[in-house]
Amino acid sequence: MKKLIKQALQGERLAIAKLLTLAENQHPSFIDASSVLFQHSGNAYRIGITGAPGTGKSTLTAKLALSIRKSGKTVGILAIDPSSPFTGGALLGDRVRMRELSGDKGIFIRSMASRGALGGIARTTTDAAMVLDAAGFDIIMIETVGAGQAEVEIATLAHTVIVVESPGLGDDIQAIKAGILEIAYILVINKADLPGVLRTENALMSAFNSSWKQVFRHHSDIGVESNKNQLAVENSGWQVPILRTEAINNEGTQALLEAILAHQQHLVKNELLQQVEKRRLQFEYEEHLRNLLFQQWKNSLTEKERHEQLDALVNRKISPQKLAQDQINER
User: Fold this and answer.
1) What DSSP assignment string belongs to 54-123?
2) Per residue in 240-254, is it b (16+ CB within 10 Å) or e — as a string?
3) What are the pLDDT digits (tens) for 72-109?
4) CA dist 250 → 59, 181, 184, 222, 285 (Å)
5) Number of Cβ within a 10 Å radius of residue 218
6) Residue 64: what are its φ and ψ, rounded to 5°?
7) What is the CA radius of gyration of the chain?
8) In angstroms, what CA-CA distances link 259 with 73, 103, 176, 224, 254?
């Protein structure tokens, strides 16, 4: 394991891939490896790309990665694909859509199955991002599963979150509903050559201009106890730009990259980057703790006890809430 970690820290792709596999499979040996890797992380800038299915997120991610590479920076990409709820398998199609990036040693692409996790990402996305960070990639791009309105977990993992829309996805009321739009630092209308782009743009501009001071206050603090300083992190003078792109034709990509750099500079200038990072690390810690405690509780029960608890629920002898509370009190 020490040799594998050393090779990954030196940027050897095979070693990086092996560590990502250990992370994704939640192998026990990765816990010790994470302690070493974590000490070498914290240098990469993280960009989240989310939006509804069919908006062209993968194509936009690929074009944006090419633009970043032209600036001389290296890019690690985590592309999350949905898993079958029946078999757990997934067709990792995002990598197929990014074929034009193959052969560039400054780009590393990893497709990950969501494995039933909600929120648009996989359970081990945070660990995979840490591996790429420790391996020395300058930029880490996380492309979520085709996310619905409430799948906003990417907001806790990325420094800059891009929400991708496209014309014709729904009526104008979608623009003023709480949900995924509230996590956007940059809003992109992709496939801008389609009819209805002006209507979509006007609806989004109207929503953001009328309620900007309230944006982020609901979703920016997922998993974090609220206080005035944290609520102000994403609400300190940054106006969400609404950009048009045609990713398939590589139009608007450079303007998008400039907007990302502007947001990064905004965080640095206003000394907000550290607060964003603190929030992210607190979320990661609490998420790992939550998973470990649940697994510990599950392992503490015999199969007979689990069946007895389920029978009690089915027969309405006790409510799920009361049973859960009793389990906590007993331990």
Assistant:
1) TS-HHHHHHHHHHHHHHTT--EEEEEEE---TTT-----THHHHTGGGTT-TTEEEEEEE-TT-SSSS-T
2) bbbbbbbbeebebbe
3) 999 999 988 766 555 555 555 555 566 677 778 899 99
4) 9, 24, 22, 34, 38
5) 13
6) -65, -40
7) 21
8) 17, 27, 23, 27, 9
Task: Output the CA torsion 95→101→105→111 (10° steps).
Answer: -10
Distance CA 170, CA 268 (A): 36
Q: Measured between alpha carbons, how far is 264 from 71 in angstroms, rounded to an integer?
A: 15
Helix axes 303-314 and 320-330, enclosed angle (nearest 10): 150
Question: Would you say 168 and 197 are in contact if contact means Cβ atoms under 8 Å apart?
Answer: no
Per DSSP, the three-state class of 222 is coil
Q: Which token pair is 89?
A: 């398998």
Host H or E run for residue 281: helix 273-300
Kindly report each contact of residues 113-118 with a partner whose C-beta sits within 8 Å and lies 24 or more positions away, as own/partner: 113/80, 113/81, 113/82, 113/83, 113/88, 113/89, 114/80, 114/81, 114/82, 114/83, 114/90, 114/145, 115/83, 115/88, 115/90, 116/83, 116/85, 116/88, 118/151, 118/153
Three-class DSSP category at 305: helix
Cβ-based burial of 290 (10 A; exposed 0-12, middle 13-18, buried ≥19): exposed
pLDDT tens readout for residues 138-166: 999 999 876 655 566 788 889 999 999 88
Q: What backbone torsions phi and psi does residue 59 show, to the nearest 5 degrees?
A: -65, -45
pTM: 0.82
Using DSSP bridges, classify how beta strands 45-51 and 75-81 pair: parallel, antiparallel or unpaired. unpaired
Query: What is the Cα–Cα distance from 194 to 246, expressed in whole angstroms?
Result: 9
3-state secondary structure of 143: strand
The two structure tokens encoding residue 165: 């829309």
Cβ proximity of 215 and 183 under 8 Å: no
H or E stretch including 165? strand 160-165
The whole-angstrom separation of Cα 103 and Cα 69 is 13
